[in-house]
Amino acid sequence: MLERLSVRDFALIDEAEVDFSSGLVIFTGETGAGKSLIVGAMGFLFGGRADASIVREGAGECLVSGIVDIRSVASAKRWLLEKDLSDDDGIVVLRRGLRRQGRAYAYIQNRAVSRGDLSDFCALLADIHGQHEHQGLLDRSGHLGLLDGFGELESEREAYRLLYEEWVAAIKDYRLKLADAERREREKDVLEFTASEIRSAKIKPNEDEELEVEERRLSHYEKLFEAVNGAVESLSPGSLESANGGIAGLRRSASALSQAAEIDEQLKEHLLRLQTSLIDIEDISESLGIYREGLRFDPRRLEAIESRLAELRRLKKKYGPRLEDVIARGRAAEASVKAFSSWDEEKKSLESKIAERQKKVLAQAELLSAKRSQVSSEFSYKVELVLSKLGMPKAKLPLVLRPLRAESGKLVLSSSGKDELEILIAPNPGESPKPLASIASGGELSRVALAIKTVLSAKGNLSTLIFDEVDAGIGGEVAVAVGGYLKTLARYCQVFCVTHLASIAVMADLHYKVDKIEESGRTVTRIQKLEGQDREGEIARMLAGDKEGKTSLAHASELLKKAAL
């Protein structure tokens, strides 16, 4: 139950704080006074979607807070425990704001929560039926959800949905792989040729670089041999060069420097460096000699290398640009060919998986359909019972539950099952049931919406119901019946109702008037609790547009007395 509502800078409401009680709470006022803003503020507090347009002009943000009593709502208590939140002896404080820049925030018991969490929690407490919500009944695509809500089939429906999504995912995966297999089939010859061509080339990593080095060596054999031979001869101890050249000269220099170092120790460091260099040069000389001995000119080898390099360059141009790219391309082609060869087996496995999941989906769909069939008659009966209290005592509301089929007649499964549902109505005896969309009377449609809403709400064990102008299109005895029904309903839960009808307003346990006035050049909405003569005057205004006329006041007084009986 909503005990208090505090509103600041919400649309035309600059500031308001309203206390509520259990029973029937009525809001009245002139058209355009802002009665629906109260319902809008409640909806915002309870997690409804909103944008910055609801922020009062000139204000930086709007803020709506409320105090709710959840002592009679066990599901709400469980929800708080699951979220590690606690109530205060059954009392919970809600707060929600929206800044003009569009940033919103929400709190439950001073803990920041998401809008989704706030909405989930408040859905366990209250239900809002807006001015135009009953028009949604004309769309039969939503009828199945109404029946499932009444039958408390959410768990069965969720179990079906999960199986259905797995089945659909398996079909999607199969179709993607089938398309890929068909593509690969078209490319099969090309892939096989590519794999074969690269495989037969027997390419080794970096083979081209190694062959290019060998090709340069063979192509320039004479020049290379002469240069290496010259270097070896120059370094050879037996060189015919001058006494100061080659290794022989270095040895003589080392011998002379050794004698000098015996005289002056400062020369030992130079002697050591010279000796080290001599060792290195001797090693170089020996290595170059070995290299020279190994040089051989093989024209057949050169021809083979040039041929191999030409083949590798052709493959790099075709599949490269680098040799590692060619190798990778060959591996990919091999993998594709191998995958294609195993497709038949994979295809059978996927088809088996689809068939298995389809079997489970169909079984769950049958179970869900059977339960829907079981609760449909009870749903019709209870709605008809409420309609009888709303001035439609002979109305019938049959449900047509049938398999969902394609134009070809084939059974179709949707995300909600194998069924489609249409709610029909026969408002009067002797009339054939027709779709709700055929109802000509807006009053009849609003009463059907009220009946369905209250039947569904009873299943949900809600503590608060909110109706915004549920009296649309009704009057006279029907309005009296609707008012009486709302009064009876309010014995079991808190009911808020925005109305233009005096016959409904007189049933209020708590009556508020909403006015739109001008203060300091600004339009503002004011909320006033009505009692005694003030309430009598408001009822008189609603009856005859005259809150001070004796006749209208007398009529208002009479209606209030009857309602109090």
Structure explained in plain terms:
The protein is of the alpha/beta class and 565 residues long. Helices cover 55% and strands 16% of the residues. It contains 18 helices and 15 strands. It has helices spanning 35-45, 74-82, 115-123, 143-150, 154-186, 188-201, 207-219, 221-235, 246-263, 268-294, 299-319, 323-341, 343-389, 442-460, 476-489, 502-505, 532-544, 550-564, and strands at 2-10, 13-19, 24-28, 61-69, 91-99, 104-108, 111-112, 126-129, 399-403, 419-425, 434-435, 464-468, 494-498, 510-519, 522-530. Strands 2-1-4-5-6-7 form a six-stranded antiparallel sheet, with helices on one face. The protein has a six-stranded mixed sheet with strand order 8-12-13-3-14-15, with helices on both faces. A hairpin with an 8-residue loop joins strand 10 and strand 11. Helix 7 packs antiparallel against helix 11, helix 11 crosses helix 12 and helix 17 (532-544) crosses helix 18 (550-564). The longest helix is centred in the middle third of the chain and has 47 residues, at 343-389. Residues 240-244 have low confidence and may be disordered.
